[in-house]
Amino acid sequence: ILFEPTPSDRPPPVTVIGTKFPLAAILGICAVTLFAAICFYIPIVQNGFLLNAIGIRSPQIIGLAGAAGAIANLLGSAAFVALNRYGHNRTCSLSFVLMGAGLMIVSFAGTLPVFVAGGIVSAFGSGILIPTLVNWALSKLRFEQRGRGVGLWQAAFWLGQFVGPLVVLAVMPA
């Protein structure tokens, strides 16, 4: 099922002289990724509490609301294929607008349908955003730099997962 090249199939090691790792560019993308990951994970962690606050206590309904977001995320990722031709800046901006609009709808929702609609909008935007950010990072890297670059990108993304709940705690009223 997996193709494993034999030693004779592998290309010789490449030594690129004078090619510096684009640290500044990657760190900028990582900063955007950190913010994006915080925005991505806050709804996942907080939706149950928010639904509870508007009177939805059924685990089945809360799970279905989360599933609607997961499907929207998948559809957003599929939409990335068509949207990628507009470039990283436009696609990234569109993604953040959708995520922000969805989160605003969720924050003012008083009913389940409005809450789910906001969650779907936000999740669709985040589905576009994640592959956009990966693609953006890869576009700055030569092939032999991709391991380090994507490692930094992943670190920023997972740091956002950790930081997201801390951000919520910091901005919530006591």
Could you explain how this protein is built, in words?
The protein is an all-alpha fold and about 170 residues long. Helix content is about 75%, strand content about 0%. It has five helices and no strands. The longest helix is centred in the N-terminal third of the chain and has 31 residues, at about 25-55. The termini are far apart. The mean pLDDT is about 90.
Descriptive keywords:
0% strand, mainly alpha, 174 residues
Q: Assign an overall shape.
A: elongated
Query: What's the overall average pLDDT, rounded?
Result: 91
Helix count from the secondary structure assignment: 5
Q: What is the N-to-C order of secondary-structure elements (H for helix, E for strand)? A: HHHHH
SS-based class: mainly alpha
Q: Outline the low-pLDDT stretches.
A: none
- Major β-sheet profile: none
How much of the sequence is in beta strands? under 5%
Helix content bin: over 70%
Gap from first CA to last CA: 55 Å
Radius of gyration of CA atoms, rounded to a whole number: 19 Å
How many E strands? 0
Question: Topology of this protein?
Answer:
Elements: H1 23-53, H2 59-83, H3 87-108, H4 112-139, H5 146-171
Helix pairs in contact: 1-2, 1-3, 1-4, 1-5, 2-4, 3-4
